[in-house]
Amino acid sequence: MAAAGALPDAGKTQGGNESYKGTTEPIRTAGASATNPTNPDGIMTETVGRAEGDPEMYQKDIDERITKIRPMATPIDQISRYATAQKSTSFEVKYYSVGTRPVKTKLTAAVTASNGTSTAIQVADPDMFTLDDTIRVVGVKAVTDYKGVAYNRNDRRTPDLVLCVCGKTSEGQPIVFAVNGTLVNNQPIGVPAIGSNTALIRMGKSCGELDVQTGRFNNIPSSELQYCQNFMAQIEQSTLDKIAAKEVNWGFTDLEEDSIYDMRLAMENSFLFGDMSKINHQAKDGMSQWFTKGIWWQAGKDIEVGTYDDETDETVVTDNDLVDISKDLFVGTGIGNKRKVLLCGSEFLAALSKIQSDKFRLKDTVEVWNLKFKSWETDFGEILAMHDELFDLNGMSDRAFALDPEFLTKKTHVSWSRNILDLKKAGVRNTDAVVIQEISCLYLRYAKAHARLSLAG
Question: Which residues pair with residue 412 across a beta bridge?
Fold first, then answer.
């Protein structure tokens, strides 16, 4: 029997596996499932095929009870259980994401003034332009208005230069004419000189009166693969222990609740920091084990926060830093959602809490998904911050994870279930036994809508 070990906070934990019987190698007796529970002979597994059924049948009632068990300790799992779970018919989940066509690029070479009816320009992303697109040239003033009158370049109301795409070069670079440029053939179509690295903003198409077609484009979704993991917990209490007198009221229900909390905490670690793999190990007699990838590694942005102060040996976060953080979180994602969840290690949250500004200090308490957050309103969007102790336990107290909850998806191959094992009738052990199981995974759509944050220094 395995010795009980002390838990870090209170109580003891004990684990065992009948497969090993005190040896370093698993027993591999064919068909002897009581002696070797990991032997798959005669057992229906997904490798062979899973029986038909409706695993969603009890999900709602069970999930509502689960979310009330210490929800603040497992925020990712908590949020995912309030989201709409999608059914998966396999351990392997393939999902697709598609972004939006870019609207901003820059010139990679200077443009010389042209008196022709059109001119080619060199841009960093030529694929973002198609026929009839109009382009704002940021910071370059228009030359001539629609009446043929020259603009006053010193007038703040003078608009920026606008170009229109009328073709493509053999290399795919846009050919343009000006909308408000220099006069050519009594029209303001001449393109003035434009410096290299000038920003270009794609605007709406301008098609001709008789046009029935225009430039076309298509965005092709890209696929990603994620594995569902078979999470399980087994709770047992012997018949004699159940009837024994105890100093405290600690029964099977308490054991089950404690095991569910432990299982959710372990799942939270996997959902955050796990890595994807499929292993066929001899300990499982060659059966496949799937391991899920954590969403920490799926985020598409990395943001450094604050400035490290050598004198105080800590990172200082200012109002300007917070403006930059919120800008980085909400701008350039191609996504319009204006709420992010920020899960923080203790050092990261402490740095935010030390800010003296009334404008940016974490103030209002907001309760969402049965979790309590500190709200942080910015001009770019709302940030809901909370301390996540798992970051501290993983040695990441100076880190944080910014999540867009709208683009967190949960896939369940087998929904959360509670199965009663009749071990006494099977002649295995004189115990009451319950197995809790869920086969699931999380993944992020639109990676740039999520970010990993770290304190400077």
Answer: 87, 440
